[in-house]
Amino acid sequence: MTLNAVGLGLWALAVEPQVSYTPLLPALIVCGIGMGMFFAPSANLVMSTVRPEEQGIASGANNAIREVGGAIGVASLTAVFSAQGGYGSASSFVDGLVPAL
Q: Nearest 5°: phi and psi at 80?
């Protein structure tokens, strides 16, 4: 998760109204590596702590909790984005995106 946070920080530093995709790639790569290093092992940990006959329930609960957390995170960061910026212009979009990141 530290790599994911670092990647989001790099993304916030690199984003500008007229930025192309290429300068954002390092941040996105760091985020992807961080997510890969967290989500796969956490799912493995959940599955390894339950009996085989309970693995379906554990997998469903793990996925549901992950999805609810994602929905709450998106809703919270949308509120931050809306309070700081908007979709009116590229500059306004970046003004909202940076604090949301």
A: -65, -45
Kindly give the confidence (pLDDT) of every residue in the chain, 101 residues in length, as a single tens digit, with 9 standing for 90 and above: 999 999 999 999 999 999 999 999 999 999 999 999 998 898 889 999 999 999 999 999 999 999 999 999 999 999 999 999 999 999 999 999 999 99
Is residue 90 within 8 A of residue 18, CB to CB? The reply is yes
Q: Which residue has the tokens 């890969």?
A: 36
Distance CA 81, CA 13 (A): 16
Q: What is the pTM of this model?
A: 0.79
Q: Compute the C-alpha angle 101/11/9, nearest 5°.
A: 60
- Residue 31 tokens read as 């985020």
Closest CA to 101 of 87, 19, 84: 84
